[in-house]
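Quick question, first post here. What does this chain look like in 3D?
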Amino acid sequence: MSRTSSLTPAVTEKVCEALKLGVSFAAAAAHAGISAWTLSDWRRRGADGEAPFDQFRDATDRARGQFEVRTAAMLMKSAQDGDGSAARYLIEHRATDTGDTSASERPSASAILAKLAGG
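> Answer (accepted):
Ran it through. C-alpha cells below.
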C-alpha cells in the first residue's frame, strides 16, 4: 500500500508565497507546515520528472525567480538613484548562468565603477 503524499495545491502555494519573499527552502517549508527534508525530497523527485512533484519543482523555481527579479529591480533603481553600494552589489553578484563570462574573466566591481565614473 503506497503512502499518500501531503503535497497539495495549498501547500505548494504556501511554499511559493514564502519563496517569493526570498526566504530559504527550510523557512518556506516551515511556513507551509512541512519539513525541510520533505520539501527537498519533493524537489528531487520533481527533478527526476515524477508527477506531481515536477510541477511543484517548477512552481518553486518560478517563485525564487520572481524574488530574484523583483530584488534586482529594486537594487537597479537604487543604483540609478546614486546608491553606490547597490551598484557595487549588482556588479559583484550578477548572474553566472550558462553563457556568462566566468568569474575569473569578469572585471572587478571597483574597475567597472571607476570606468563608469570616468576614471
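The mean pLDDT is 82.
Residues 26 and 36 are 5 Å apart (CA to CA).
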